[in-house]
Amino acid sequence: MPDTSDLLVISDLHGHYGESHVLHGMNLSVRAGEVVTLLGRNGAGKTSTLRAIIGILGQREGSIRVSGTETIRLPSERIARLGIALCPEERGIFSSLTVAENLRLPPRLKAGGYTDEEVYGLFPRLLERASSQGTKLSGGEQQMLAIARIIRTGANILLLDEPTEGLAPVIVKQIAEVILSLKQRGFTILLVEQNFRFAAKVADRHYVVEHGKVVDEVAASDVTRRMPEIQAYLGV
Amino acid sequence: MATLFGIPLAALSGQLLLGLINGAFYAILSLGLALIFGMLNIINFAHGAQFMMGAFVAWLSLTYLGLGYWWALLLAPLVVGIVGIIIERTMLCRLYKLDHLYGLLFTFGISLLIEGFFRQLYGVSGMPYAVPEILTGGLDLGILYAPIYRLWVVAASVVVCIGVWLAVDKTRLGAYLRAATENPTLVRTFGINVPVLITLTYGIGVALAGFAGVLAAPIYSVNPLMGSNLIIVVFAVVVIGGMGSILGSVVTGFGLGILEGLTKVIYPEASSTVIFLVMAFVLLVKPAGLFGKETGGAAQADNGHARSERGNLKTLGIPLAVLLAVFAVAPFAVYPIFLMKALCFAMFACAFNLMIGYGGLLSFGHAAFFGMASYISAYTAKQWGFNPELSILAAALVSGGLGAAIGGLAIRRQGIYFSMITLALAQMVYFFCLQAPFTNGEDGIQSVPRGHLFGLIDLSSDMTMYYFVLAMFALVYLAIVRIVHSPFGRVLSAVKGNEPRAVSLGYEANRYKFMLFVFSATLAGVAGATKALALQLASLTDVFWSMSGEVVLMSLIGGLGTLLGPVVGAFFITGLQNYLAQFGAWVTIIQGLVFIICVLVFRRGIVGEIQGWSSDLMKRSGKLNAGASHGESKLSTPPA
User: Fold this and answer.
1) Of B137, B241, B471, B559, which residue is the least packed, with the fewest Cβ within 10 Å?
2) Is B64 near chain A, with CB under 8 Å?
3) CATH topology of domain A1-83+194-236
């Protein structure tokens, strides 16, 4: 049962892309300060769930409450102002903006975000490349930039969509460290991942998504015991 | 006297200054277009009308409020910007999810509305606007005497352009703008209100046009048509520069202005067409434009008009037979001249609709084919004594050839660029017809003999001529039906539906588009030639851009992509013009309104809506029947 400390509560969420019905009654909740992942195969509806939360999925029904506020009818800029930020799967770095402009693009919404010094402390490469074109960065650097720009705005709920996709193992390790340090700082994170080993390292709980709804929930402490089940969910 | 390559230096520098001034206007206007296009993905056809509105605000505020030039420089952009914002918020914002072509059509309607409104109130003669006192007089620069006001215009334009460029490139708001141009959805998730940003961009873009209008007021006289010819040149400028960069559009604007000035010295006859020639050349060597980035295949938005007519020739034959029967008896009830005129426009609209409805190509230059053909048939019939069938054939061949030239260039770009290119090239044809001796310029070719068909049948009586026009119409209509239902037509609808897919299947999309263009131009030529004989007149009206607009309107109101739609639309619009002819500029106003209403709420057109209703009805009754039979089968199945 969702209790009052739940920051994000989704109940009976349905979503559509044009004609196709992609979310079929999602239910999940995330408590303040938690890192929760959505696991599942390709096309299960993980990314669509994140897009629905931030309000950019074509059509949504059901309920999404953020810190107690119902957002199902709000436009995405209003939802964002409640303190949610998305780091999209394709990273969304703007090619007509420099690295520094990309970083400063999202306006500060609330107090409590990282200062510029803290951001550059966490991602020193971004300072070195500050004046180059955003899309001239390497894939890993672009991923760092995509995370960096949403942690300085004061948003306290981060939606991270496959931050490790297509990156070298050494970068994946760095990103895991970044996520753990974000967690320490008190960010609430909803993470979509295909890389279960990565997810297991950073998350408190895992939701398993299949056919547009949550079919199972695994606490971090149960992961070892339930490994065969999880592998069956994710196996091809 | 000092000369350079045999040209007096004073004349050269004088024309260069004039060119620079034109360039200043091109730069501000194309800058505004580029800003708006970046955010809204819409080519703002009303830009010329909004430029004119700026000049009028200056004139009105001086005449009625006693507010001088400097106030106007502040007031006009504000007024034009606010009107623009109201238009965007109430109407334009509904079109973003549709094909970009609807934005072009909508803003075209707005420009007709604004222009018609001012014409109705102030006529076309033009009002003088004095140069502000402080800027009167001139400077002797040694090689030329330059009026201070003209220097001021150039300076003001440079300052504004640089200001806008700095604002977009260096400020935070500019960063929002650039980011939202790339990916508006993501920018919204950062808590930035993109819809407001879009509205603001449109407001600022048209305010720039208003500002340019005030600058222009003392140079050109303030008149309702000052914007419409300018905007076509600006479209060409935009195609040449590519709309990728702000600085690019400014540099292109000034550069082409200077080039135009130079041409005026070297070869004055070409000065009005040189920019269009440059455009043609740029399209050949670098289709994306000098500063443009090549965007991969046209990402076609939802085609509202992507409905091609299914059904076989048999079902199509019935409405045609009914139609012909009605037309056969019509001249006994209605004035035959009016019917002939409407039938010629119906042919023209059918030819145009062949391209938009079955190729997805919105040509804004079909008047070139219609008008050129009407000149050719009028000329050959009158001067060379050609029989009607020969003069029509000659005209069709010429307009087909013209179609090959224009089409060959235009299909190098897609979507709205295609429309702008056809418009610009057609304007070039217009200037040619204006200057060429055989067209008699403003007078046109009058009292064209109708002649004897095949040397036998005298067409001079209106009734005989009417049946000849009707036969021509039937021929054109059947040719179109044949093309649409041929294998060639099937490939076209594949290309229209999904061009990359069709290309991947091995069809050379461009070759098909080219052939379609030539077909459509030829048939438009047949329409124009028949019109010249029927009404015994070929004039500049036939080849002017407003004629291209009219044929778009006819097809739109009748139903784009339906076979009968253009016919219905042609009769509707011709009838409207007939009734409203006595009310002067009201025709333009009403045409503008019809455009706007069609685009906003009536996109399927008259025939499209009727087809939509009937197919809905059929679906519904089909469902009911299915439900009923389902129920029956249940009842009749005995329980096991």
Assistant:
1) B137
2) no
3) Rossmann fold (3.40.50)
* The pLDDT of residue A66: 92
Angstrom distances, CA of residue A196 to CA of A190, A203, A209, A211, B82: 14, 10, 13, 19, 55
What's the longest Cα–Cα distance across chain B? Answer: 114
Residue of B39, B93, B189 best to disrupt the A interface, most CBs of A under 10 A: B189
Task: Give the pLDDT confidence score for residue B635 in this predicted structure.
Answer: 34
Nearest neighbour of A76 by CB, restricted to B178, B183, B189: B189
- The alpha carbon of residue A174 is apart from the nearest alpha carbon of chain B, in Å, by 25
Q: Do A77 and B182 touch (CB under 8 A)?
A: no
Q: Which residues contact B561 (CB under 8 A, 6 or more apart)?
A: B305, B306, B307, B308, B309, B353, B356, B357, B358, B608
Per-residue model confidence as pLDDT tens digits over B389-436:
888 999 999 999 999 999 998 888 887 788 888 988 898 899 889 888
Distance in Å from the first CA to the final CA of chain B: 114
pLDDT at B306: 39
Chain A residues with CB-CB distance to B292 below 8 A: none
Answer yes or no: are the C-beta atoms of A46 and A97 closer than 8 Å.
Answer: no
Candidates B448, B461, B472; CA nearest to B346 is B472
B106-155, pLDDT tens digit by residue?
A: 999 999 999 999 988 888 888 888 888 888 877 777 777 788 898 899 99
Mean pLDDT, chain A, whole residue set: 89
Contact between residue A149 and residue A143 where contact means Cβ atoms under 8 Å apart: no
For chain A, the structural domain boundaries read 1-83+194-236
Q: Which residues of B touch A101 (CB under 8 A)?
A: 175
Q: How far is CA B136 from CA B76, B139, B151, B219, in A?
A: 21, 10, 11, 12
Across the range A11-26, mean pLDDT stands at 88
> Is A54 an 8 Å CB contact of chain B?
yes
Instruction: Tell me the backbone φ, ψ of residue B454, rounded to 5 degrees.
Output: 50, 25
Sign of CA dihedral B355, B356, B361, B363: positive
What would the two tokens of residue B231 be?
């905007």
Q: All domains of chain B, ordered by start, with CATH?
A: 3-285 (1.10.3470), 334-611 (1.10.3470)
CA angle, B601 as apex, B595 and B607 as ends, to 5°?
80
Please report the pLDDT score of residue A72 as a whole number: 92
Q: Quote the minimal CA–CA distance from A223 to chain B in Å.
A: 33
User: Which band of pLDDT confidence, cut at 50, 70 and 90, is reported for residue B243?
Assistant: confident
- pLDDT tens digits for A79-105? 999 999 999 999 999 998 999 999 999
Q: List CB contacts (< 8 A) between A106 and chain B.
A: 190-192
pLDDT digits 0-9 by tens, A125-177: 899 998 999 899 999 999 999 999 999 998 999 999 999 988 999 999 999 99
Indicate the SS3 state at residue B417: helix
Half-sphere exposure of A1 (CA within 13 A, CB side): 2
In B, which residues are within 8 Å of A76 by CB distance?
185, 188-189
